[in-house]
Amino acid sequence: MKELFVSKTGGSIQVFLSSDGESIPLGRNWVHQIEQALATTSLMFVFVTPASLKSSWLYFESGYAYSKEIRVVPVGFLGVDLASIPAPLNLLQGFNITSESGLNNIIAVANSTFQHNHGENFNGEEYRAICSTGLLRQDAGLGTYAGLLDEITFSIEGQKLLSANFEMALRKIAETFNLPARECRLSHDTLETQGITFRAFEPRGDSYLQICIDPGIADIALPLIENALRHVLKDGFCGVILYIRFVKGVAYLDQRHKLTGRLYGTGVKLSPDSWLRYNDMEFDFEPGFTTSFTTTKSLRRITAPYLKTRLLTDQIDLQQFQQLLDLLFEREILTFSRIGS
């Protein structure tokens, strides 16, 4: 984002970014460098993301700048909606970035602050590139496990939705995603965009909303989905079931006494039903099956398993999912061997 901004403004505005390896040269006192930058700046964009919300530096630095009468502009990014964050940041005039128009707001605010006239020409391809650059970071979201996951699926009972009309619910989700028509496909029971499919169905008289996600974009998709679903769920995420399907080669320990024995002393508790509880979620395993049909019979073949989780709070905590996966692989509840090795 910084590189594109500097290019589009012709290098006429000096940009300080503490994590780019350039604004703070190696060997310098980084606290002093940040202090110096804050003391000489005219405009600060505060990017509010799922990760930065957990950092006290977000509030410390923005509060310091505001006290110096620097223009501070909060920016909701990677699924964070400024309307949902607490004071004091939500008291400042800001905007969300959910498309290229949000990126162009950065140029518009800079033009207003510095009396420049740069073109507001971020495009959709640049927006997608900016949002995807952090997907494979080892410390982000599902991180090192992304390559072992085949699909992430939400299963939401229809009665948890504000509207019994699936088409209205899907349309509301599409509006929240703020996607142009060319980037999504919407019908009465399906909403599809790149890497995410929302599908409504009614097996045996029950109604469900199913959301399928490509794990490769989970770090971006899950915060966006969380924000969108808050507009259509009655009581938040508590009780929502999330399935993680693994790739071939991943297996789980299906002998219950051995599974619970290996988790002894880890803080995992037994739930009243067949689930196990870990912090703010419950989990269990299901074997994967595929069904093939011949002219005389159908055959079921066991494939990679599912990790089934039930949320107990009103939020999706990616860090907690990663901690659970860490624990399950560490205790060899989950194992992985390359096919043919």
Number of helices: 9
Total beta strand runs = 15
Radius of gyration over C-alpha positions, nearest whole angstrom: 23 Å
Q: What is the 3D shape? A: globular
Low-confidence stretches: 134-140, 290-295
Give the termini distance in whole angstroms: 42 Å
Would you give an account of this structure?
- This protein is α+β, with helices and mostly antiparallel strands.
- The chain is built from nine helices and 15 strands.
- The protein has helices spanning 2-8, 30-40, 56-67, 100-114, 124-132, 166-177, 218-229, 256-262, 318-330, and strands at residues 43-48, 71-76, 95-96, 149-157, 184-186, 190-193, 196-201, 208-213, 241-246, 250-252, 269-270, 276-278, 281-293, 298-311, 334-336.
- It has a ten-stranded antiparallel beta sheet, with helices on one face.
- β6 (190-193) and β7 (196-201) form a beta hairpin.
- α6 (166-177) packs across α7.
- The radius of gyration is 23 Å and the shape is globular.
- The two termini are 42 Å apart.
- Mean pLDDT is 81; it is low at 134-140 and 290-295.
List the helices and strands and how they pair.
Elements (H helix, E strand, L loop, with lengths): L1 H7 L21 H11 L2 E6 L7 H12 L3 E6 L18 E2 L3 H15 L9 H9 L16 E9 L8 H12 L6 E3 L3 E4 L2 E6 L6 E6 L4 H12 L11 E6 L3 E3 L3 H7 L6 E2 L5 E3 L2 E13 L4 E14 L6 H13 L3 E3 L5
Parallel strand pairs: 1-2, 2-3
Antiparallel strand pairs: 4-8, 4-9, 5-6, 6-7, 7-8, 9-14, 10-15, 11-12, 12-13, 13-14
Helix pairs in contact: 6-7
Structure characteristics:
341 residues, 10-stranded antiparallel β-sheet, single chain, globular, 3-stranded parallel β-sheet, alpha+beta
